[in-house]
Design goal:
alpha+beta, Glucose Permease (Domain IIA), nine-stranded antiparallel beta sheet, two-stranded antiparallel ribbon, 11 strands, 23% strand, elongated
């Protein structure tokens, strides 16, 4: 069957060109108010024009206004306030989880007797040494340095004697200060293992009845109150005059870090916690200016 395209085109043109009269009349009097001459072609052009204008307006609104963020797959979600808030929360949670995992891992290693070494802790710490820029020597500075070295060599012996005498005076004042301090006995009882720093025993072991309270030797502030695998429940107090007292192997601790302590105040209960103990006792240490001293020289325990 052959199609006659010219005939079909002619029929379509005639169909689109067919005119209609659109009249508006009053409902009561049937009086003609307005009339419009329409055709299929005019209606098609009108509808097409309206659709094109509407599409262009919608397109410009999406491109030039924030409405584009509402279009799925088009808007940049990173500019959304809700997205930024959720992103910050997720980052905070990830940081907290990382800190918690590190803490749990360290605690497991301590409990298993395999704590981290210094090399493991500092493996990610890197230092970069930079050579300073060379400084040009000045003639006046060289002359001044020669004069200073000459005067320094001549007074070297006198200075050595002065500092030696000064050290002796400071040592005598330190000893006098320790002897004048009135320590409170932390726990009455016989002394077991004595002070033997050469064997790593920097304090003394005091034996007493179970549940006996342990008292602070001086006023001070708690700087340590925790538990370790070897020493059990341990508490340490910072006192005046660079003195620190340490109490180990307690069954329970009565004070927290930061607590202000008065001399003679109960701070712990005697116990047998930790691996370095074989019975209820108090391991007591006394440190002065960063060095251990023998508590028996300054406190009476019997």
């Amino acid at each position: 069957m052959n199609f006659d395209f010219k005939k079909i085109k002619k029929q379509l043109k005639a169909h689109l060109s067919k005119s209609f009269l659109f009249q508006l009349r009053d409902e009561d009097t049937f009086e003609e108010i307005a009339s419009y001459k329409l055709s299929f072609l005019n209606v098609y052009i009108l509808i097409s024009t309206v659709l094109c204008i509407s599409g262009l307006i919608t397109l410009f609104l999406i491109i030039l206004t924030p409405l584009k963020n509402l279009v799925p797959g088009y808007g940049d979600i990173s500019y959304s306030g809700e997205y930024q808030t959720l992103s910050k929360r997720i980052q905070t949670i990830e940081e907290e989880i990382a800190v918690r995992d590190t803490y749990i891992l360290s605690l497991r290693r301590i409990l298993s007797g395999n704590p981290e070494t210094v090399d493991e802790v500092t493996k990610d710490v890197h230092f970069k040494l930079e050579n300073p820029d060379p400084v040009q020597k000045v003639r006046e500075d060289s002359i001044l340095r020669v004069e200073f070295e000459a005067g320094r060599s001549s007074d070297k012996r006198n200075q050595g004697r002065f500092f030696k005498n000064l050290d002796k005076q400071a040592l005598s004042v330190s000893r006098k200060t320790l002897e004048e301090i009135e320590f409170t006995c932390p726990l009455k009882g016989p002394v077991g293992a004595g002070y033997k720093p050469e064997k790593g025993h920097f304090g003394i072991d005091i034996i007493a009845a179970e549940n006996s309270p342990i008292k602070a030797v001086l006023n001070g502030s708690v700087i340590q109150s925790d538990w370790s695998l070897e020493n059990g429940h341990t508490i340490a107090i910072q006192h005046n005059d660079n003195l620190v007292s340490v109490y180990k192997h307690n069954s329970s601790l009565l004070k927290k870090v930061g607590s202000q302590i008065k001399s003679g105040e109960a701070i712990a209960i005697i116990g047998n916690t930790g691996t370095l103990t074989q019975g209820p006792h108090l391991h007591f240490e006394l440190w002065y200016q960063g060095k251990p001293i023998n508590p028996v020289d300054y406190i009476r325990f019997n």
